[in-house]
Recover the amino acids of this structure.
């Protein structure tokens, strides 16, 4: 469970509620038709752009911000270096049994290609192609959330303009002028909140998760190709260490760089 | 028929109508001169930028969002792998008769070049050139819809400013002030709706359709060149599978990777 | 004469005039000092950025949107393929006399280099350099029009703020409040119109014309280099055809692909 | 201590205070709930996007604008040229003892690879990888500050809309209308100040510091590879000098270019 | 002296003054505290981002828009072609004495490398590196002016919000309402003017001057490398001519292309 996302989403909502409370307008901010116009209208427009299955899956994908993903970079380095040492000592075929137990499907597929004696350039093409396609799929999701983030304030503004037109067409009752205008503004508020509090930060997190996953897979590609080429395990270890933060690097440096 | 686009376009319109109805201003939102200024004015400005035939064709192109396009990626993989196997078994010339029946003009042209013994580098240049030109033509259309998406709120704002100037020049009749301003705002509403509800989502869909088509053609190029180079059909199958979603891949993996 | 540009510019103006007329403010929209502040002020600022000759030439360049340019892509393909065939049949020197009559200076210069026996790589560098420089010069013009498109609404807003300040400093005469504010808004209207109705569409057209010219020159470079390399005219024809729209291609395919 | 950052941050605040004082509203600008909504709300939203440790570390990172960083480019050139001369005169192994005393960890690691006889291409990969990862980490921080710079005015606007809604729902007391609206505007002011006075300039400085550090490391990579390749120290000196400003270059030119 | 910049800056100011005069508010537009808040506040924020010496040098750099720079492209072509001919006729060492008298430091340094017998690839690296560093330094200045162009309207808006807050907190005196609001708007006016009339055009000019200088240096690099490689002076002349405008090319074509 990703505690930071909880802090962000519930904390942000709390701050807005506090603001409304201290401004004495907490009740006036909750208006179901306004929510329907802003949230529903912008959501429906997503259907025009994206296939049905994508739009319906967006809530599921946005829920990913609450999950923690561990791409285990430190363990990755240690595993790849140990494979490299084994391959050097006992030959590439010795990796066959190691591969059976691997959880990481991407690494397993790559190493199987190595064991099968596939050409290095072909392995690189296959693995990079797969990585690019994965990133492409992630990008569709991120673009989808971004599209919502842009449409929401657009529909918020639309709702306010519609409210203003209704109000201005009928100015006789001066006493209802203020409250009517207040209601009109609620859609602007909802649109702006959806953008600033929800969709932009969520799309940012999805992008961050994607960049972490891409980075860990680039490490796997680098490692698998290094094993295929029969590089010195020490050089591989050094290459892998450059991907880690200085702190993580310190933690495992002595381990993987053992002479 | 693309059901999602129907949901998006008619659903979005319905939400706006509901908003107007619940705000009691449904009648006040329909104003033909305002529609003419916003939609007509911005449409006419497209003529300044693009050739006649393009601007007149824009409604046709926008209608594409209601059509479903199936670039049949799974069938593509199976076909290319079976061609590759045949070429390996019986020689490249054996593909000649297969080509006759191909519906896919792009693949047929590519394979004919292979059968004719054209050099691989030349085939790549020809096929990529054709793909780039196709994408270039699509991009002109997408840019055209985007241009309209930008001009529409510009003309909406223009209409509102014109209305305000007319209203302010003649303030004597206080009672007509509100309704006049309401009418002025209708063009802003139309401009914003055209952008958020119509043109931006439609341009997004056209872009999505283009990216799917480009991807399927890249698969064809990859496959044709692989056949020309006499690659192992198994390697080709693996390359092709990386283009598919994990679900699609599962579905045909056992089929094309048969040993 | 480019009829589309006429439709765009005069049609767009007509729509705005119709809007003003139907809002009863046609007279109030014409204000020479406002035009001077918005159009003149933004135009003068262009002098700060660009050399004298460029700024003074901008009206001339913008006038190009009314001219039709025909880069004759179909004829280009036919000519280059016929040259290629002749060079193959009778040797490259046989092109010497053909070159004399060529109107297209760019193609002539390129083919003369071929006849002179210049190295292919040098020809490519020279021709691409020339193409890049031409595009660079076009880009300065397009940037200039874009700069005006950005400055015009800036000065429009400036004029409105100046008008508001004048009006607010002197609020005694309530009856003149409305008309004064109306006049202030006219500069906003002019700035927005210059941007949406004039400069953005014109800059778009200049960009479109440039992209067509660049494409036709790329075809010439491709063709000239193909002739220099002694490629098969059939391959050249196929390469050239990929640049054409499907319709144009159909029209001349049988002609240039004759066996 | 970076005196310029002090001038910028405290001077900028002083100017705003002066403006408020001369407008007679200094007291009215300080409102703790408004600060909490604008600053707190936007800060909390950062948690949704970034991992806990990053968000909590942001104040520390922003504090870097007050520190001066000296990447010592002049000394770098002199050191690398002297190493190059020594390696040429006494062989690469002679650098071993020099390396012990080096403070610059990046240069030391690079030179040790040279002394160990590592291949030049491998050294380049390792060093560039490390540089890219460092820049990637810096970029996350800069993006984080930029995200705050974008969210702050968003929450400022949100606060104002909330205030307006509260005010408009309750228009009876005309006398409190002005002050209530004034309070609503304070969040807009805070959001705009955080963006213009604080976060955008700070993110700019972090970007500047990063570009300086990247440049100095590129010099080290260039120098280390030049030593590995056994280049003429004079050529290395010339390469290094191109990285310096004309003034710095003058200062050490005679020193490192001694014949 | 660059007459165009004078026209732009003083003409633009004159148009704004005319607008203020015709709106009867010339006196009301001059307000020293407003100038201090908008110009001073935004200027001080630059200190947070850039080193002291850069910020203090900005006025000097902006003064460059009034200077004319002649990068003498025509003379450049003639000189490089004549050097090329001499080197071909009398050998590269014959250039030694020509170099002594060269004013252009960049060309002199390049040619000295040629005379010293430096390798072509090394010369290219050294010269391009130097060009990139020069462009990098220019870019810091241009970015600095752009930063000011963005901050100025930000502080203008800040000043207006501060003024509005002061005014709204104290609504008793209705008669001062208008003038107070007028004063508030003056900072918006100043911010917008600084951006549209001053900083954006000036930054544009600095960018234009930079692009001209970069282009002339690219010509020198091309020419020096061509001389080093012993290319035919005729080919060099043709390469150089592609950099010139059609008009300039006509003027010297017969001169440098003499057989």
């Amino acid at each position: 469970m990703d505690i930071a996302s909880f802090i962000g989403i519930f904390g942000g909502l709390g701050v807005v509620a506090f603001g409304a409370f201290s401004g004495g307008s907490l009740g006036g901010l909750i208006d179901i038709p306004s929510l329907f116009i802003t949230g529903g209208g912008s959501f429906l427009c997503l259907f025009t752009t994206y296939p049905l299955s994508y739009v319906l899956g967006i809530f599921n994908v946005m829920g990913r911000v609450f999950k923690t993903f561990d791409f285990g970079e430190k363990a990755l380095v240690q595993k790849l270096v140990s494979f490299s040492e084994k391959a050097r000592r006992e030959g590439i075929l010795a990796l066959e049994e190691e591969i059976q137990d691997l959880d990481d499907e991407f690494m397993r597929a790559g190493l199987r290609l190595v064991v099968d004696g596939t050409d290095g350039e072909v392995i690189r093409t296959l693995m990079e192609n797969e990585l690019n396609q994965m990133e492409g799929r992630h990008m569709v999701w991120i673009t989808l959330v971004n599209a919502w983030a842009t449409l929401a304030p657009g529909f918020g503004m639309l709702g306010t303009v519609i409210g203003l037109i209704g109000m201005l067409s009928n100015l006789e009752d001066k006493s209802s002028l203020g409250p009517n205008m207040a209601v009109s503004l609620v859609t602007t508020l909802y649109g702006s909140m959806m953008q600033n509090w929800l969709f932009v930060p969520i799309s940012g997190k999805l992008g961050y998760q994607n960049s972490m996953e891409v980075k860990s897979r680039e490490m796997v590609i680098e490692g698998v190709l290094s094993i295929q080429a029969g590089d010195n395990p020490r050089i591989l270890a050094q290459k892998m260490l450059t991907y880690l933060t200085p702190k993580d690097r310190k933690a495992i440096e002595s381990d993987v760089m053992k002479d």
In short: Residues 32-61+69-254 of chain E form one domain.
